[in-house]
């Protein structure tokens, strides 16, 4: 994969006069009387690589669904001052807000190039696309191929790609649509270690000049690549800040341990700036490190190692999709 931008993501984003931003205020979502998301506030600037984490059923995917118009919501979601709530899905996409799903949505019978070309033509008329010669590949498509590392596989059917490559293709389909806000739902679920590393590096490259929000359960991936983290519990924001700050937050530890009811916070949670924690050597990628105390390992009732926090693998039924499974070994270009 190639370098797309020299501007790296930083904690809090690269806020400036001409920066894009996404501002969420009082976002709430209800399903048949159940409040899946409750009064959520988020401020995301261009250049922020923000991870949304939390216990299962915390509302992470539902927030993305609400922002992109897939579920009705109350409150306010503005992209650079333009209100998104109440708009249709395709209208929100045309405003530069794109999202991926846990299972890559690509046209498997078509080539990698054709998938990108169709995505790039989303805003063009059918007549314009038909008039273009087959050999003429839009510059945005060529750029995306290089960025996602699939140039040598451009003529391969998308269905023959490895699992990780399909996810990269879907990200590329957002890039050719010039999405400036990318909402990614568990982009590394089912990936090999090599694919996770390449995906993280891809997000760093494209994130410097965009706002990238990642819903993730892989704690090691979060520690390696997040510039800031928002922790959700029971549909509400529990904590926000750098990786180190949220790991040390007693309320976060309590929510993951489940030892007592999480006390409600009444004050706004500030976003920490200028912090970027690296990965903890040897840490399990599904645990959130914490300073001291006993934790429950993911999916088991046995205690985890001291100073680590796990989470249960099952999600609240009907509110968050199951993760995708691993695909074939990565093909060499």
From TrEMBL:
A single Gene Ontology CC term: plasma membrane
Low complexity biased stretches: 290-310
Pfam families given in the database record: ABC_tran, BCA_ABC_TP_C
Repeat found in the keyword field: no
Compositionally biased spans, kind Polar residues: 322-333
Domain ABC transporter: 22-259
Alphabetized InterPro entries for the sequence: ABC_AA/LPS_Transport, ABC_transporter-like_ATP-bd, ABC_transptr_urea_ATP-bd_UrtD, BCA_ABC_TP_C, P-loop_NTPase
UniProt-listed PROSITE patterns: ABC_TRANSPORTER_2 (PS50893)
Keywords of this entry: ATP-binding, Nucleotide-binding, Transport
Region feature (Disordered): 272-333
GO molecular function per UniProt: ATP binding; ATP hydrolysis activity
UniProt cross-references to PANTHER family, sorted A to Z: CONSERVED COMPONENT OF ABC TRANSPORTER FOR NATURAL AMINO ACIDS-RELATED (PTHR45772), HIGH-AFFINITY BRANCHED-CHAIN AMINO ACID TRANSPORT ATP-BINDING PROTEIN (PTHR45772:SF8)
Protein's name in the database: Urea ABC transporter ATP-binding protein UrtD
Organism: Nocardia flavorosea
